[in-house]
Write a structure and sequence with these properties.
Elements: H1 6-19, E1 23-27, H2 31-46, E2 53-55, H3 59-62, H4 68-74, E3 80-85, H5 92-100, E4 103-108, E5 122-124, H6 140-152, H7 158-174, H8 181-194, H9 200-206, H10 216-227, E6 232-233, E7 236-237, H11 238-243, H12 248-279, E8 286-290, H13 298-309, E9 313-318, E10 322-328, H14 335-340, E11 346-351, E12 355-361, H15 365-375
Length: 377
């Protein structure tokens, strides 16, 4: 059974390549988004074309997903084919805005559907209505790989396939997707190839002294936990620079920078946790925010608190007029469905049942919290 619109998306991209149209990739900066964009970028390059722009939104400044700041930045390239990866399925107004500016839009995503899909030209998401594809738990990188297979056909060499499967395995593991069905196959194949990867960025990891006495699973855990944070250099995720690096020396510099940043984040996480745990009362959920917190560590903080207290956890950074937050939910609670019931107070939200995010005006925070409590039966 074919995934709905996957072939249609491939045909539209092929047409853009043949006609020399401008192509823009717009993706999340986590490991699923980064591995997806590397696969599609290299696929298009192997078909003799190039990407005119790759955009990674800054969640803290611009919010999650396809956002107005990103569209404004990219409008200089219009008209163009704009392909979103690992985001976009909840961005209804932003899709309209981009289309009004002359963009044609393909959404490739795997997140939960919020009642309906945006009015993009083509939407690929196995969770959308009418999609009969039997396996619904692919990461976006798995969907991107399938798209690459259609685009490249016989042009996908054995070596290129191996290098793509390495990325599929990493993105799928990092996004905590179920390791069964197709995901299990992707992971097994990708990990089989990864220790002999041609990518300098991956080779550099396995040459690090700290990896010497670890088995493969331990190495992969360290690699994904280090790369899955949205750590940037000049607005470009370090993980993207690493996977596309042509030099092991440059890759090792990037890795050392990541380890330094990781130690900084650990300290920030510890400080935030100590402050929150003192304030937690006998409530049904954890709902905490502060203007001084570093947004990049809030996902970690929410995960640790949710795991420890077994409560839905909403951790947010307060900006001048709005707040942006990370959400984690224990087994049995769907964080996206919970926020759906309170969407009247939210600017944007979306993600997976156990892990999601939101953006909200500060004036609505208390009402949002009350609404969440009311809907937690």
């Amino acid at each position: 059974m074919e995934m709905k619109n996957l072939k249609k998306a491939a045909e539209r991209i092929q047409k853009a390549i043949e006609k020399g149209e401008k192509i823009i990739l717009y993706t999340d900066a986590d490991l699923d988004g980064v591995t997806s964009v590397v696969i599609l970028k290299e696929t298009i390059k192997n078909l003799g074309a190039k990407i005119c722009a790759i955009y990674f939104p800054d969640r803290e400044k611009d919010g999650y997903g396809l956002n107005k700041a990103g569209i404004e930045f990219l409008k200089r390239f219009s008209p163009a084919l704009l392909i979103t990866l690992d985001l976009g399925i909840g961005n209804f107004e932003e899709v309209k805005m981009a289309k009004e500016l002359g963009f044609e839009i393909i959404i490739v995503d795997h997140h939960e559907i919020l009642d309906k899909v945006p009015e993009a030209d083509i939407v690929v998401d196995p969770k959308q209505e009418g999609d009969k594809y039997p396996f619904k738990d692919l990461a976006t990188v798995g969907i991107s790989f399938k798209l690459a297979e259609i685009l490249l056909g016989e042009k996908m060499s054995r070596e290129l396939r191996k290098s793509f499967l390495e990325l599929v395995a990493l993105g799928t593991i990092a996004d905590l997707m179920p390791q069964c069905n197709e995901n299990e196959i992707f992971i097994q194949e990708g990990l089989h190839f990864i220790q002999n990867s041609f990518r300098p960025g991956i080779k550099a990891f396995f040459e690090m002294e700290m990896f010497e006495n670890l088995d493969l699973n331990q190495k992969i855990f360290k690699l994904t936990s280090l790369l899955n944070v949205r750590e940037n250099e000049k607005s470009i995720p370090i993980s993207f620079k690493l996977f596309t690096s042509s030099s092991t020396d440059e890759a090792k510099r990037l890795i050392e920078n990541l380890f330094f940043k990781k130690e900084e984040r650990k300290k920030k996480v510890k400080e935030i946790l100590e402050g929150i745990e003192k304030r937690i009362r006998a409530e049904k959920l954890i709902f905490e925010g502060d203007k001084e917190w570093d947004f990049s560590v809030l996902g970690n903080v929410a995960s640790l608190l949710c795991k420890k207290f077994r409560k839905p956890t909403f951790i947010f950074k307060k900006l001048e007029k709005e707040s942006i937050g990370a959400v984690r939910a224990p087994s049995g609670i769907n964080s996206v469905d919970l926020m759906e019931k309170c969407r009247t107070y939210l600017l944007t939200f979306g993600g997976h049942p156990p892990a999601s995010g939101f953006r909200i005006k500060n004036e609505n925070l208390e009402n949002f919290k009350n609404c969440l409590n009311e809907n937690l039966k």
